[in-house]
Design brief:
Helix content is 26%, strand content 23%. The chain is α+β, with helices and mostly antiparallel strands. Strand 19 and strand 20 form a beta hairpin. Helix 7 packs antiparallel against helix 9, helix 9 packs antiparallel against helix 11 and helix 10 packs across helix 11. It is a single-pass type I membrane protein.
């Protein structure tokens, strides 16, 4: 009997202990679940502080749009968030909020969803502290505060939370350890930004998974209709264990500062444990507040911006006026006294008009010393106005000091008149530029007829035309050297400086390098100028140009006209040496342009080649004068025997001022 009683007593004791264990375990696993579909009915379950209030239609308004205000709203019962094994339990929450800014571009500061050890936040400050902390306790580990901030202003201390319109994770501080600009992922996985202060309802899903310590946050405008599958934030937060106490209060804080917004919560659900928070149905919630911004006058920033822009525009208009007056003065051209003595001077304004402002589509040629433009200038006479075509060459001299002397020589060259010279009508000085005005020659240069035109259309310059052009050039040089009042040394005889008129007559032009000398005087130039391949050997030694150096250039040009070959190439080829080799072997006609076929006069071709070799003699004293050259070409004088020579011992080194 005694044994039976002992066994019954033991059984009852075990049962009692099991009941106590299960009761304690059940107490440890107490869950919290609630849902507010609007806040009009269950106001008593919220603890509201400062500016937080329930509107007549059931919205929770944390702050209005007054400056420097704060408001808090917490669920009035604590929530158990620690398990017996001291791990943070899973929890989830969902809420729909609306932020109405003071104006369309001026809202702030923001609000938070918060885990707090107390159902209010005493001593919390406004503005950047969001009604959660203050300057003294910010960052204090004894706060035991975790907050998800929805910040609408470039944030706290302007060092960590630099981006406005963002979501941040805060642990005991307003400095966010994790931060993301507000956005959602669409069905294609593209990230779409949107504004917290848009005035439209925005839904938040927040889930903390205790076993993995992972917090996910999804935020999106409710107009999308469904929750995006990809969260904006998915972050392990082991630091949460340092924050959470056994019991915590859950709720919202919000604040305004010098910038302000009204912060509303339309609905809220919360749950601890594995079961997610209840779904909020937008149709069951009170209607969102109207999205109307207060009408406000212009703030100081806008006024300052308007004043600054007005000042800048005024300064720009004044500078534009000064620039226009300067350009007008340049075009009116204040002349120096010495310039008035030269009647062949053109007005820059007229040349500017004639060439359409020196536009690129008016360019008809370029060279080492300038660009040539085609122009149409209007002249008036006693009968009626007429328009003449002109060629305007713009030259920038190397030295301003030489402008006066240059103009004096150009003025003299303007008096040259010969059928085989381009007529230099006049000149113009504008700033640092000198402009030379010539007759316009329609057929272009000899260079283009020898090379460019055959390549483009297959038209080869005939032998008769070539021979007449050669004699015309010789006639023009004879006039310059011997028949005018002064000696004129051209110094740049080459195909591109020979223009062909509509009667196929050559016109030697481009007197930009020409020099004049009184008869009986000697040249004293020392600067080497000209074009490689056409420069006499003595020029590379002393730079002393003469009529003999022009004869050398003509000889090269004559050989080029007959052979259709450039005087030099990138290697060691020199045209005169090549023709001399043909001549020495008794096969000089092999140098004739092969494109002519048999369509040329052999006697004239042989004559031209031999005369060209005479003119290219390396010794200046052995070259004929231009008068004798023309007599040779006209058949008025027999051509002497040409001694064999070579330029290999007197070839060119490239001078610094020469052209290629």
């Amino acid at each position: 009997m005694g044994e039976t009683r002992s066994m019954i007593t033991f059984f009852l004791l075990v049962t009692f202990l099991q009941i106590i264990f299960l009761a304690h375990r059940a107490a440890g696993e107490t869950t919290t679940e609630f849902i507010f579909q609007g806040f009009k009915v269950n106001q008593s379950k919220l603890q509201l502080e400062e500016d937080a209030t329930i509107t007549p239609n059931g919205l929770l308004r944390l702050t209005n749009r007054n400056s420097d205000r704060a408001g808090t709203a917490f669920y009035n019962k604590p929530v158990r968030l620690l398990d017996n094994n001291s791990t943070v339990r899973s929890f989830s929450t969902s809420f729909i909020f609306v932020i109405i800014p003071s104006s369309s571009n001026n809202g702030g500061f923001g609000f938070t969803f918060t885990l707090s050890p107390t159902p209010n936040r005493p001593d919390a400050e406004t503005a950047q502290y969001l009604g959660l902390l203050n300057e003294d306790d910010d960052g204090d580990p004894d706060n035991h505060v975790f907050a998800v901030e929805f910040d609408t202003v470039q944030g706290y201390k302007d060092s960590t939370d630099r981006i406005g319109n963002h979501i941040g994770l805060n642990f005991n501080s307003l400095s966010s350890l994790v931060q993301e600009p507000v956005a959602y992922y669409d069905k294609e996985g593209h990230k779409e930004d949107f504004q917290l202060t848009s005035g439209e309802p925005i839904q938040v899903f927040m889930d903390y998974h205790g076993p993995t310590r992972t917090l996910t946050i999804t935020v999106y405008p409710t107009r999308l209709g469904s929750k995006p599958t990809t969260p904006l934030i998915s972050q392990k937060v082991p630091k949460l264990l340092e924050i959470v106490q056994e019991e915590m209060f859950v709720g919202f804080t919000a604040a305004t500062g010098d910038k302000s917004s009204a912060h509303y919560v339309m609905g809220w659900s919360f749950s601890t444990g594995p079961v997610p928070a209840a779904t909020l149905n937008l149709t069951d919630l009170p209607p969102p507040p109207p999205n109307t911004a207060k009408k406000r006058g212009l703030n100081k920033e806008i006024i300052s911006l308007v004043v600054s822009l007005t000042t800048v525009i005024t300064i720009m208009l004044v500078l534009l006026f000064i620039l226009m007056m300067y350009k007008r003065r340049l075009q009116e051209e204040v002349l120096e006294d010495w310039e008035l003595d030269h009647p062949h001077r053109f007005r820059y304004k007229d040349l500017h008009t004639a060439t359409d402002g020196f536009k690129d589509n008016r360019i008809i040629g370029t060279g080492g010393f300038g660009t040539v433009y085609k122009g149409i200038i209007t002249t008036t006479s006693s009968s009626s106005p007429s328009s003449d075509e002109i060629a305007v060459k713009k030259i920038t001299p190397n030295s301003i000091q030489g402008v006066r002397e240059f103009v004096a020589e150009i003025e003299s060259l303007g008096r040259l008149r010969h059928k085989n010279l381009v007529n230099l009508q006049g000149w113009c000085k504008h700033g640092n530029d000198l402009l030379l005005i010539y007759d316009y020659i329609p057929n272009g240069s000899l260079d283009s007829l020898l090379y460019s035109k055959p390549r483009l259309c297959g038209a080869v310059l005939t032998w008769d035309a070539r021979f007449q052009i050669a004699k015309g050039i010789a006639s023009g040089l004879l006039y310059l050297h011997e028949e005018w009042e002064k000696i004129v040394i051209h110094r740049d005889v080459k195909p591109s400086n020979v223009l062909i008129d509509d009667q196929m007559n050559p016109r030697l032009g481009d007197f930009g390098l020409a020099r004049l000398y009184e008869r009986g005087s000697l040249s004293h130039t020392t600067v080497v100028v000209g074009t490689i391949g056409y420069m006499a050997p003595e020029l590379t030694r002393n730079g002393n140009s003469s009529s003999a150096s022009d004869v050398f250039a003509f000889g090269v040009l004559l050989l080029e006209i007959v052979s259709g070959r450039k005087p030099t190439d990138s290697g060691s080829f020199f045209l005169a040496d090549w023709v001399m080799e043909m001549h020495a072997s008794g096969q000089v006609l092999r140098a004739v342009d092969s494109r002519l076929g048999s369509g040329y006069d052999e006697e004239e071709a042989r004559l031209a080649l031999v005369v060209g070799l005479l003119c290219c003699h390396p010794k200046r004293g052995s070259r004929p004068a231009m008068r004798m050259v023309l007599r040779y070409l006209n058949g008025d004088e027999g051509v002497p025997e040409v001694e064999v020579y070579s330029h290999s011992s007197s070839r060119y080194s490239l001078p610094s001022d020469s052209k290629e």
